[in-house]
Amino acid sequence: VELYHGDALDESVGEATDLFTNADGSAILWEPGVIAYENFKVANEGSLALKYQLSMNIVDYNTVDGKSLADVLKVAVLEGETFTGDRAAAQGLTYESTLSEFVKEGNLEAEAEDTYAVVIYWEPGANDNDYNLNNGKTSSDGEPLYIDLGITLTATQDTVESDSFDNQYDADAYADTLRAHRVEELVAQGYTAVDDIDDFQGMLADPEKEKIVFADDVVVTSETERLSLSQDKTIDFNNVTFTREDHTGNGLLIGEEGSDPHPVNVTIMNANFVSETTSAAVRVESGSTATFTDCTFTGSSPVQAYAQEGQKTTLVFENCTFAGEVDLGTASGGGREYDVVFRNCTFTGSFGNGGASVSLDSGAYGSVTLEDCDIDITYRGNAVRGINIGSYYGSNDNQEITVTLRNTNITLTKDPAASGGLYGPNPGDPVYINSKDITNLVIEDGCTFVRDGQTATYNAADQSWSYGA
User: Strand 326-328 to strand 356-360: parallel, antiparallel, or no bridges (unpaired)?
Assistant: First the structure.
C-alpha cells in the first residue's frame, strides 16, 4: 500500500514528508479562520486485496490553561475528490470530527485506489481568546501555542482471497496489525508494553512504569496473583479484552497495597473489561481517583468502587459503555464519600430483582452526575431502576448526596422473557431515592424518562414519580 499527496496526488508520503503546510512549505500560523488541507490517495499497489485505516497522529502540542489547539481545530473529509483551498468552500463544509477523532477506513482490491481531501479549520468562535497568549496567558512550556500533526496509514490483507478452506484465514490480521502498530507508537512515547498477565502484575507496584500499553488480551483466573495497583499510572489497554473468568481470586484492584487501601490516581483508556462471574473485573478502592475513557464494561457487575470513612473515592467515566451494573458499594465505617461523573456514556442490559445501571449503596454521600448519557435497560424482576440511591435498610448518616442528570435519558422496558405474565414483574422508578437519605435529584437540559412506553415525571416536592401516556 502507498500513500500519495500533492496537487496531482503523485508525491509519495514518507516519514519525513511535511504535511498541512502553507503553499511555500512553511508552517501554518494558526488563528481563527485559518484553513489547512491535504489531498491524499491511498493506493493498493500489490496483488492481494487489502483493508486500511487512515488516521490523524497528534505527535506533540502544548497547552494554555489546559487547552490546546487539538481542542479547537476541526476536520472535514471529502471522499473521492480533491480540495483547492477555496475559503468560501471550506467555510461551507461540515466539521464534525476533532483531530484525534479523524479516522477513515476502506477496502481496496489489487491496483485500486481511494482519494480523500482532509481539511482542517479553526472556525471562529466566542472562546477564541482562550488561546491568545497576548491576553497575559502563559503556555505550559512558555512557548507560543503549537501542534505537531502527522498522518498514519495502516493496512493488512483483506478477507477476500481464499486458502484451501475459506477466506477467513487472515480475518484477525487487521485488528492485530493496528494493535501492534499502536503499541510501537506508544512505546516510542515512553510506555511499557504488557504481553501477558504476569508482566502486568509485575508493573503494578513499580513507580518507574508510569505508562503501560497492552499488546494482547489477558485473562484473570483463580490462579492469577492478586493484581493490586499501588502506584499512579496511565494505562492504555489498546482495545484488548481484560477478562475475569472465575469467582475466586480478584480482578484489577485499583488503589490497593497488599489487601489495604492505598489511594492512587489512575487513568485507564481503551479497555474492554469482561466479568464472566458475579464479581467485578475492575474495582476502585477507597480514596483513589480513577478516570476511564473509551472503555466497555460487560458482566453482572463488571465495575465496582468502594469508599470508607475519611477517604473520598473519585470516578470519571467518559465515552464508556456498560452492559451491567456500576456498583458503588461501601466499606466499613461511616462517612463514605463519592464524587462520580459519567459523560457521554451508554448503559444497557437486562436486570433481575433490584437491579440498576448505577447503584449507590447505603451510607454513601457526595455527588453523582450523568451528562449526555443514555440508560436503556430491560427488567425481568421486580424494582429494577435506572439509578438506585441508598438501600431499603440504611441511611447515609444525615450526609447529603446530590444526583444530577443533564441531557440524560432513562428508559425501562419489560423483558419479553420476564415471568409474571400481564401483572408482573413490577418495575421500579427511573431513579430511586431512599426516603431515609438526604438526597437532591437535579434534572437539567432536556432529560427524558420512559417506563414501558409511558412518560415518567419527577415531583421534587415529595420525591415521587408519576406516569402518563
Answer: parallel
Angle made by CA atoms 318, 320, 324, in degrees to the nearest 5: 135
Cell numbers found for residue 242: 481484560
> Within a 13 Å sphere around the CA of 225, how many CA atoms are in the beta-carbon half?
13
Question: What residues are paired with 385 via a beta bridge?
Answer: 356
Report strand pairing: 265-269 vs 256-257: unpaired
pLDDT tens digits for 6-21? 888 999 998 889 999 9
Q: Which residue in this structure is represented by grid cell 483531530? A: 99
CB 39 within 8 A of CB 32: no
pLDDT at 258 over 90: no
Grid cell, residue 24, equals 511555500
Q: How far is CA 41 from the centre of its chain?
A: 31
Q: Which of 355, 354, 436 is nearest to 393 (CA)?
A: 436
Q: In what order do the strands lie in the sheet with 103-108?
A: 103-108, 50-61, 147-157
Phi, psi (5° rounding) for residue 356? -160, 155
Residue 182's pLDDT is 80
Q: Name residue, grid cell 443533564.
A: 406
Average pLDDT over residues 371-382: 93
Compute the average pLDDT of residues 61-73. 87
Alpha-carbon span 255 to 227, nearest angstrom: 10
Q: What is the identity of the amino acid at 400?
A: E
Distance CA 169, CA 31 (A): 50
Amino acid making up residue 257: E
Least confident range from 29-38, 77-86, 249-258, 361-370: namely 361-370
* Three-state secondary-structure class, residue 182: helix
| 42 CB neighbour count, 10 Å cutoff | 23
Residues 229, 284: Cα–Cα separation, whole Å: 10
pLDDT band at 393 (very low <50, low <70, confident <90, very high): very low
Angle at 435 between CA 431 and CA 436, to 5 degrees: 130
pLDDT at 429 over 90: yes
Distance CA(354)–CA(187), nearest Å, equals 45
CB atoms near residue 453 (< 10 Å): 10
- Residues 279/325, Cβ–Cβ less than 8 Å: no
H-helix or E-strand spanning residue 442: strand 438-444
Average pLDDT over residues 448-461: 92
Res 277: pLDDT: 83
Whether the model pTM is above 0.70: no
Torsion of CA 430, 431, 435, 441, to 10 degrees: -130
Q: Alpha-carbon distance 427 to 412, whole Å?
A: 8
